[in-house]
Automatic annotation (TrEMBL):
Subcellular location: Cell membrane; Membrane
Organism: Dorea hominis
Regions that span the bilayer: 6-23, 43-64, 76-97, 104-125, 137-160, 172-203, 209-227, 239-259, 265-283
tRNA processing is among the record's keywords: no
PANTHER family xref list: MEMBRANE TRANSPORTER PROTEIN HI_0806-RELATED
UniProt record similarity statement: Belongs to the 4-toluene sulfonate uptake permease (TSUP) (TC 2.A.102) family.
Membrane topology note: Multi-pass membrane protein
Protein name, entry field: Probable membrane transporter protein
Primary localization class, coarse: membrane
Length: 290
């Protein structure tokens, strides 16, 4: 078996253990579960993961949808993202990770770095109060909107065309540190895909190499951080399992049926929504602080 196959096998064994852990937690707290607005959450997960597979990203879309529909408590949003989207991201990685050949050492080390970062980030975020979480989510959405606009306009690192399939020496160290930081940021709602692609391009690697690195990173780090959020109970228990199922369906529809859409205008619209939603988080945080 090659490295890509080994990574996928280990990923799904890990995902199975994670899902059992999640299921046990949901069952153990079934009397506390609130299923209010469950249809909203099912649709949000399906749509967010559908567009994640097509390259827009799921975290910002889901965060904005939850804020506007009030179908998830603000303090549970970071945990809900990492807990409920972990399995759909594994499905996504399965579809795409074997399509691109990347240097094995670079791939494994950058994935491992993101996982360590996510575990540390989840421990920190699960202890934040709602005012701090609202502020962090607002900042996260602004940053994601800026990065997304740079990406669709090929601005900055996104305009660089590299050819390398992997990294060595100082560049490898930079890549590992960068993905470690991105793993931390993933737990507060800043999706890893676009920033990871920027790092890959800045370090001189080919654009397509970003896909196995960023998808592999997310497929491993989401369950890793998800364990921490599940243990602390900082996620939407009532909608978690349904969102896992609908999110996986969204990925399959996008990855195996639709494959591509004219997304430029929609991406601009999503950026506008992200900024508006960020302002709402800032307003609520300031109001709560008073």
């Amino acid at each position: 078996m090659n490295v890509a196959t080994i990574l996928l096998v280990v990923m799904w064994v890990y995902a199975a253990v994670y899902f059992i852990f999640l299921l046990k937690d949901v069952i153990a707290h079934k009397d506390e579960i609130n299923n209010e607005k469950l249809p909203h959450n099912i649709i949000i997960s399906l749509v967010a993961n559908f567009f994640d597979t097509l390259g827009i990203g799921s975290y910002a879309i889901a965060t904005s949808a939850w804020k506007f529909t009030k179908s998830n408590s603000d303090d549970l949003i970071p945990g809900s993202l990492n807990v409920s989207f972990a399995i759909p991201i594994c499905v996504e990685a399965t579809i795409f990770i074997k399509k691109v050949q990347a240097d094995s050492l670079t791939l494994v080390l950058m994935i491992a770095a993101s996982v360590v970062g996510a575990v540390i980030g989840a421990k920190m975020v699960s202890k934040l109060d709602i005012t701090k979480i609202r502020t962090v989510m607002g900042v996260a959405l602004i940053l994601v909107a800026i990065i997304t606009l740079c990406k669709i306009n090929a601005f900055g690192p996104f305009g660089i065309i590299g050819t390398a399939r992997g990294l060595t020496g100082t560049k490898l160290v930079i890549g590992i540190v960068a993905n470690f930081i991105l793993g931390i940021l993933m737990t507060v709602g800043i999706g890893l895909y676009a920033p990871c692609m920027a790092v890959v391009l800045l370090l001189g690697m080919s654009t397509d190499v970003a896909f196995p690195i960023m998808m592999g990173s997310c497929a491993y780090l989401c369950p890793a951080s998800g364990f921490e959020f599940i243990k602390s109970g900082k996620y939407h228990r009532g909608a978690a399992i349904p969102m896992v199922i609908s999110g996986s369906i969204g990925v399959l529809i996008a990855g195996l049926i639709v494959t591509s859409l004219p997304l430029t205008v929609l991406t601009y619209l999503v950026c506008v929504v992200m900024v508006v939603c960020a302002c709402m988080f800032f307003h609520d945080a300031r109001k709560a602080a008073r």
